[in-house]
Amino acid sequence: MLEDNDTTTRKALCRTSLLTWMRSIVVPEGTLRTKPRALNYALDFARGSIVGVYDAEDSPDPNQLRIVAATFANAGPQVVCLQGILDYYNSGANWLTRCFTIEYASWFRVVLPGYARMGLVVPLGGTTLFFRHDILEKLGGWDAHNVTEDADLGLRLARAGYETVFIPSVTQEEANGRFWPWVKQRSRWLKGYAITYCVHMRDPGRLWRDLGPWRFFWCAGAIRRNAVTIPARAADLVVLACTAWP
Fold first, then answer.
1. What are phi and psi of 110, to 5 degrees?
2. To 10 degrees, the CA torsion angle through 86, 92, 93, 99?
């Protein structure tokens, strides 16, 4: 998927020979220029029973799609989403990328799988995601106005009674190694978690009925905590990264 004003990536693709089963889709100009809007636009072109999401710089394990197909084939109908493990291929670039690596290692290998095993709401990662196409359409796709559309969709999946399962396959990404882009990225995450919290807490009674008491209290606390404590957690990671410096 390409935004209509992304001339750099479009020129790069013109110089690249895509595989026969791959094609580029240009998202037309609109009042919104968000990733979830682009995903919703591309969803209309998807023909398979499984819809996967990757970022452009991702480098997934070679056998990842086979694992996805086998997991869905052996899972019950309540398993609608598969989440892969995210890691970084440039973790040693500088201290900031070390911080990201520590954070992702804990988040995708310990915290989120723990949520899934405990039956809690799983705020999804933004990539290496795979969905049953028909259920994703039934849920209305992604919220085009939410800048953390992954966390929002994970909550909507849980509210609808569906499950997310983690697969033992890793996708390598490029960690953000510059300070100002890091600030903007974190600000977007803070904003997105705040939006997700406000949207789903508009009707607490309905959220309670959808999730049940245990998941309701966890959701109310955890998502709100993520929205207000990410800066403090980032500071902790800086300290950890400094102690890990050789």
1. -125, -60
2. 60
Separation CA 153–CA 155 (nearest Å):
5
First to last CA, the chain: 40
Phi, psi of 3 (to 5 degrees): -75, 150
Residue range 52-66, pLDDT digits in tens? 999 989 999 999 999
What total number of domains does the chain contain?
A: 1
CA 196, CA 200: separation in Å to the nearest integer?
6
Q: Tell me the pairing of strands 163-173 and 129-132.
A: unpaired
Q: How many residues does the chain have?
A: 246
The verdict on residue 2 lying in a domain is no
Residue 64 inside a domain? The answer is yes
Tens-digit pLDDT profile for residues 133-189: 999 999 999 999 999 999 999 999 999 999 999 999 999 999 989 988 888 888 888
Strands 129-132 and 79-88: antiparallel
Is 156 inside any structural domain?
yes
